[in-house]
Structure formats: C-alpha cells, structure tokens
Amino acid sequence: MSSEVIAVTLALASALMFAFTFTLVRVGVKSASSETALWVTLSINVVFLWGWSIVGYGWQFGDWWQWRYFVLAGIFAPLLGRLFQFLGMARLGSNITTPLTLTHPVVSLVLAMTFLGESLTTLGLFGALLVIVGSVVVGSQGGKNETASLKAVPKTYLVLPMIASFSYGISMVFRKIGIDIGTDAVTAAAVTTTSSWFFASLYTGFTGGFKQIRCTRKEFGFFIFAGIFSSFGPVLLFFAMQYSDLVVVAPLASTTPLFVLLMSYIFIRADEIFTTKVVMGTIATVLGVMMVSVYGIA
Hints:
By secondary structure, this protein is an all-alpha fold. The protein has twelve helices and no strands. The chain has helices at about 5-30, 35-55, 70-90, 95-100, 105-115, 120-140, 160-180, 185-205, 215-245, 245-255, 255-265, 275-295. Helix 3 packs antiparallel against helix 7 (about 160-180).
C-alpha cells in the first residue's frame, strides 16, 4: 500500500472520528453549556491520550522545547476551534456550522504554500474556491425549525464557525511543522490537547466559569464517548501527516460534514436545517476538498 493511500485512509478516518464527536455532543447535550462540553471533553482527551502515550511510548520529555509547536497548535485547536464550533452548533445547527468550519483547509493551504513551500495546481485552486462557495451556500440558508434557522437568529452568528475555521487552519500548520521534526502521533496529540485544556482551564478559572460547568449524568455519558472519539481524531490526523503533505491531508481531514450530515439525518433531523441547497452546498464543499487532495500538489 502506497504512502498516499495510507494518508488518505487515515485522514478520512480522522474526519469520521470528529463527526462522531460533534454528533454525540449535538444529540446528548440538552442543558449543558458549550463551555461545559468543551472543558469536559478536553479533560477526557487529556486523561485518555496521556494514558495511551505513557503506556505505549513511555516518558519522553527530556527536551520540552521540541514540543513547542504542539503547544501552539493546541491553543488554536482544539481550544479555540472546538469552542467556537460548539457555540456555532448551539445557535446554527451542526449541518450549517460544520461546512462553514470546513473552510479551514483554505487557511491551511495558503499558509502551507507561504511558509512550508508547498504548492497547488490550477485544479487544486478551483477545488479550494469550491469549498468556499459550497460553505457560503450552506451558511446562507434558513430552515423550517425556528430554533435552528438563520431567519430566526442574527447573521452575525456566522462569525462563530468562521473563527473556528481560522483556528483549525492555523493549528494544522503548526501540527505539520511539529510532526515533521519527528515524534510519535499519540504523544503529539496528548501535548496538543493538554495545551488546549490548560488554557481553557485558566480562562474558566479566572472568569469563575467552573461554577457553570454542570451536566446531567446522561450528558456526561455522551461526553465520555465524545471525548474518546475526539481523542482518536488527532492521533489519526498526525499519522496521516507523517505519510503525506498538508495540501493532501488538510482537505481530506475536513470531509467531516459528509459524515455529520448522514448522522444528523438519522439522529437529529427535527433540530437541523435540511433543504436542497444545504445538501447541495455540503456536497459541493466535499467535492472541493476532494479536488484539492487529488489535484492539489503541483
């Protein structure tokens, strides 16, 4: 099996893990806040990934400086990316928030071409533009359910998934730089997630937010499963980055909405916006990222 095929498989598997994460949060969370979802799932990530790292690879922190890029990556995502994505999901629904957040490969590609020396073909650039167009189409649509319709909420809420997009895009570049230096994917994921958890905890503590972190026993059960799936996601992503360039991995890893759309249809259709344009916009976005991955490398 070629390295490109392995990278494609791992990147798609990573997207599937994140789709499970966001769907579980959407299905299971009824009263808990977005901040609660973020902090609890990050805490589960930290425990799960460090347990895996220490058992599987042992303690390897004689030189802390080599992990600096993963710390920076963790500040942008999962921390900022997941926070603004959860906020967007709560106000717009997951099948609108996810495609808008999906524009993060464009951010990653621009930064990769500028700072990592990677390049795109003409068809790859067209695919990137298709991502943007598809995402804007999805984000501009209203729905039948007033609680999840852009007709019933301020359009400024669209800023939330876009901030998530920039956060994920910047984080991907830092992850690529770090993994190319040479380390294992599990510990890299543990450091990245711990960075997010640390700064999220500082912010929550300084703002008195810990008093607001509450969830029911049922919600906590969903958070546990969401945390496990979101732990596998970055590990698979780092493995994929070890096999191919960022211009291939980033678009494929963002095919999450294809899985989210299917899961939303099955589990939470009544709470989501499903119109022909939303579906077509999502398909266009996915086709765009696939074009970037197939024709992107110059």
